Each structure stands twice: as C-alpha cells, then as structure tokens.
Amino acid sequence: MLKRFAGWWLAGPATLAVLVFLMLPVAATIATTFGEDGGIFAPYIAFFNSGFRRTVLWRTIEISLATTAISLVVGFLTAYVVSKSPGKLKSLLIIAAVFPLLTGVVVRSFAWLIILGKNGILNNFLVGIGAISEPLSMLYTQGSVIVAMVYLFVPLMILTLVGVLENIPDDVVQASASLGATPAGTFRQVILPLAVPGLIVGAVLVFTGSFTAYATPQLLGGERQMVMGTLMYQRAMVSFDWVGASTIAAIMVVITITVVLAMSRVARRLNPMAT
Amino acid sequence: MMTSRINPLLILFTVVVYIFLMGPLIIVLGASVSDTTYLTFPPQGLTLRWFENIFEISAFRRTIITSLELAFLATGLALLVGIPAAYALNRYRIKLPSWLSTVFVLPILVPEIVLGFSLLKSVAVGMETPIFLTLLIGHMLLVLPYCVRVVSASLASFDFSIEEAAVSLGSPPVKTFFTIVLPNVRSGVIAAFILAFITSINDVSTSLFLTGPGISTLPIQILAHVEQFFDPTIASVSVLLMLLTVAVMAIVERTLGLTFLAK
User: What is the value of ipTM here, to two decimals?
Assistant: First the structure.
C-alpha cells in the first residue's frame, strides 16, 4: 500500500501546498468579482466604463510592449556577440549579465531615480555641458518607466538567448556560408529563424513580467504613470475597494495566461527544427 | 577567429549595452560613500557613515532580520517539500498523472502580486493566520517552482539503477535516498537553495500586501524609505544587497562553476 502510492506520498505535500495556498486563494479572489450586486459582470463593466482605469490598462500594455520590443532587439544583438565571444570573455560577459539579474528589482529601479531625478546625474551632466539650460523633468514619465524596465529585463533576455544561440549547430551556419551566403545573410536567414522559439520565450517572460510589475512603476512612474500593479495596490490598500482590486487581479491573470498559452502555441508552430 | 567576423558596429553596441548594465550599479556604489546628505555621483568626499546609518534606523535593523529569517525558512520549507516532489516526478514518472508536473508551473503563471493579494484576503484575513506565517507561505510558494525544477533537472540525469542496486543489496529505501540519491544531486540542491534564497530576499510583489506597520521586509522598507527620504542610506542598503549577490555568486563559482548560472 505504502509502496504503491509512494509517488503520491512524496509529491503530496508540495502539490497540496500549491493547491491550497495558491490555487484556492487565487480562485477565491477571481470568484469574488462575479455574482456581485448589479449583475454578474458588474465589476468588469465598472472597470471598463471608467476612463481612468481604461487609460491605466492601455498604458500598462503600451509600457509592456515597448519594454518587450526594446529588450528583444537589445538582448538578441548582445546575446549574438556574447555567444560568438572566445571562452574567457564569454564567461565574463555572462557573469556581468547575471550580476544585475541577481540584484533586486528595488535596487535596480532605485539606481534610475539617482540618474533621472531633477538634480540627478543626467540633468547635471546635460546642464554642465550646456545642452540644456534648465533641468528636465524626466522622472514620472512613461519614458522613465520604460528605461528602467528595459534595464530590468535585458539581462534576462541576454541569458535566455545566449543559451538558445549556443544550441544552434555549427554545421548549419557553416553550410549556409559554404553555399555562398554573406554573414549578414546567414544571420537573417539561418540564425534568426532558428532563434525564434527562444525569442518568443524571452518575449513572454518580459511581457508578463512588465505587465504585472509593481516596484519599478511605483518608483519611476508614481501616481502620474499608474499601471495595473500600482492601481491594484491603490484600490486595495488606499481605497479598500477589494472587489475593484480583485477585478484588476483577475484581468492580470487572464492576460498572463492567454499570452503564455498563445505564444507557446506560436513558438511550436514557428520552430523550424520541428518537423 | 570567429570573433573577427562580427561586425565592429555590433561589438560597439555590445560595449554600450554593458555600460548600460553596469553603470547604474556603479553609480549606486559611488552614491553610497558620498559625504553629502543627498544622493550624488561622482561621490564628494568619502565616508562609510551611511552604512552605519542603516543600523541606526531600527526599521532597517528589523526588516533585515525579518528578510533573512523569511528567506532561510521559506527556502528550507520549499526544499523540504520540493525535493521529495522532484524525486517522485522523476522516479515514479509512469505511475503519476502528467498534470502533476504542471502543478509546479502554476506559481509562475500567477502574477506574484495577485498571489500576495489573494493570500492577504483568504489566508491572512479569511483564516486569521498571523502575518509572518502568511508571508512565509507566500515566499515558500514563490520559490517552490525553482526548487522543484532545478532539483528535477539534476535528477533527470541521475541513473536510478544505482539506487536499485543499493536497495537490492539490502539498503533501506530512506537510507538509500540520503546516502546515494541526495549526494548525486548535491549541485542541483545548492543551486536551488541559492536561486530561491536570492529570489525571496529581493521579492517585492508577493510581500507587498503582506506587510504593514508591524512587520515588513527589507525591499518593502526600502520602497517606503525612498518615498520619504532621498539620502545615501538607501544607496548603502543597496550596496549591502549587491554584496550579498557577490557572495552568492562566489559560492556558486566555488561549488558549481559560474557557467551554471547561464543555464
């Protein structure tokens, strides 16, 4: 008896922990958004009827898309150079990407407060060289949030893509060259398509990460650039509107899961190595 | 030979990217030793008083201890339930339903901030659980997927026939696990511990709803402090956290080699 169910006994505690303390509470949160007074979808109607909340949702999508697009380009080009670097330099470049990744979100966002502030380093520098006469207001703009988010996610993208690029067999690249393709042609027609599944994995990580972020938009966007995460906190802890906060939570969960499922399907379809 | 074929513009671009990656952290380091009451770079004068100041602020002293306790306990608990789960998923693959491994992907699919909020509603308020315990549950769930996945990956390359050999020679199953299986996946367990520990120490989103005036974690305290004071104390706390990262990377380098982190 004990032997037959050994697998269940061993996997049980961890499985139960996830089901009881993650699945149930999250399901309960989502459940409270339905069956309210005024119709089953009332909280959602209220959310989308509010111009302010629609703006927040749209702004969050914009910031996440911009962060994802920039991180993809920067991360891919950098990962390409890293993957082609000789051994010692390569490990050094990988370490230099791991270090910021392991340093917390708060620390990395705080760094940008020092750089972009009114009396920050960038303003002092620009005034110093005479490029501008008055310090610019760079904080609490969509741009400042995007810069800090890109900073947050580029290391992740580099590390994901270095792994992917290193798995591309050398034979394929050599075959392309010996058949007369220029290095740029090989890059575009061989390496890029083979990296697509990895690019999609990276893009999903960055998009869902930025869509649900809290610390970075809070520090660099503040009240003026409210996003879904900061709005959810404000609804729950400032206005004590728990149904409103739960509605935002539900929208986040639905968008995250939709993006993950849709993109993993796309990744499977676009994988040129799959037959 | 390979390097020479990369477009020089691409190399220049990579250099700029790495300056972008390292620059802000160097600026924080510089600002933390500046002998000014405001944050500035390059530092003006050199002082370590902002580091002393961290320990003079009781909120920082308290939250540093809470964060360390939380990280050790959450990681320990996650490994305690995660290692057996990883073992079961590999050893009894055929007997267990396929959805079981998906269960451990779920915490990744649920946004951390949603997990924190749901724990506040259902566990802290709904079940009247003490807030530290709720925080611990949250952090345990946050790091559990890393533990299961990383230990699972190293178990995947473990040859279970070694274990069977030990058992058939009369070694009791539990003893076999500790003397044969566990030593063989040691590197996976260390990696899981480190990843989990650093994730817990740095977490904001899960802890956000589970902290208050009575109990808080270091990152949440930093967020609260920045909004009121903009002095170099925050830079010095940040440097402490960076030193922790360096220490972690040194441990990984000693035990597993740093290329491990790139995987």
Answer: 0.92
